[in-house]
Specification:
single chain, mainly alpha, Glutathione S-transferase Yfyf (Class Pi), Chain A, domain 2, disordered C terminus
Length: 108
């Protein structure tokens, strides 16, 4: 997401990543994935990936993307989940200093 310049390109990147998560969940279960399965996976993936400048990207997309795209449809659903991730604030500004055996960041 950080490598994209336009807000719509950042949204497209997020939508693609979220679709891949749903595909992964669908292939691991016999039934379609639900939001109850998707959100914990999204949280875990974001914690492990530790995307650079995540808060800056969220602010950029929120400010410059078409408001209708942020509120409606599939992209809006994925963005709403992404914006409300309960990630530690230290992921937004401090390099990862988590212990090797912990999925959570301990720099806070």
């Amino acid at each position: 997401m950080d490598g994209k310049m336009a807000p719509q390109d950042k949204m497209d990147c997020l939508v693609l990543a979220c679709k891949k998560i749903f595909e992964m969940l669908k292939s691991s279960n016999e039934h379609p994935a639900s939001a109850d399965e998707f959100l914990p996976c999204l949280i875990y993936i974001c914690l492990k990936a530790n995307p650079p400048r995540i808060q800056s990207n969220i602010n950029f997309v929120t400010r410059f993307c078409n408001e209708d795209k942020l509120r409606m449809g599939q992209a809006g659903y994925f963005f709403a989940n992404f914006v409300r991730l309960p990630l530690p604030t230290c992921l937004f500004c401090v390099p990862d200093r988590s212990p090797p055996d912990s999925p959570l960041t301990s720099c806070c």
